[in-house]
Write a structure and sequence with these properties.
Elements lengths: L1 H21 L19 E5 L7 E8 L21 E7 L6 E11 L2 E7 L3 E10 L2 E10 L8 E9 L3
Antiparallel strand pairs: 1-2, 1-8, 2-3, 3-4, 4-5, 5-6, 6-7, 7-8
Length: 160
């Protein structure tokens, strides 16, 4: 009799275990921060359709934590990238994709960098009069003797 009771208890336990394992368990999901979109978040087209420089730019803002500082006290925020930029150069038959690079806030500008092997490029961007202003400073590292130079391009937002 004891064996029968013990066997029945085991069967009930295994049935309960199987039921618990097969049922869907719901756990609350962590909430995600809402980020305000930046007016720079867009795809931008060069206003000069005949440019031999940069033809298109994409920009996306990161959603970072906001650090609140006590009033009247110094507050240093870590140097976090605030977004990313993707630059497309004028090439044929398609634009040359430089890829995504992180950008950091520098005064009124955001700054990113590209190392293309033969040249290092600083990319500076900001909004001005509903246009994206892009300044690129190029420094050649391939011992070709080419002089460093800077370009300034203006872009209009595509879509919304």
């Amino acid at each position: 009799m004891k064996k029968l009771v013990a066997l029945k208890a085991r069967v009930q336990f295994l049935c309960a275990l199987g039921l618990a394992a097969s049922s869907t368990v719901w756990f609350p999901q962590p909430t995600k921060a809402l980020c305000a979109a930046s007016p720079m978040d867009a795809t931008w087209q060069n206003v000069d359709s005949n440019t031999r420089s940069i033809v298109k730019v994409e920009y996306r803002t990161n959603c970072n934590d906001v650090i609140l500082c006590p009033v009247g006290e110094p507050c240093s925020q870590p140097a976090k990238d605030i977004g990313k930029i993707r630059v497309f150069g004028s090439c044929h038959p398609r634009a040359c994709d430089w890829g995504w690079t992180p950008v950091y806030k520098k005064s009124q500008w955001v700054k990113g960098q590209y190392d293309q092997g033969f040249a290092q490029r600083q990319v500076w961007a900001k909004l001005q009069n509903n246009q994206l202003v892009l300044v690129i400073r190029s420094h050649f590292t391939d011992n070709s003797g080419r002089a460093d130079y800077q370009t300034r391009e203006y872009f209009r937002k595509l879509g919304k």
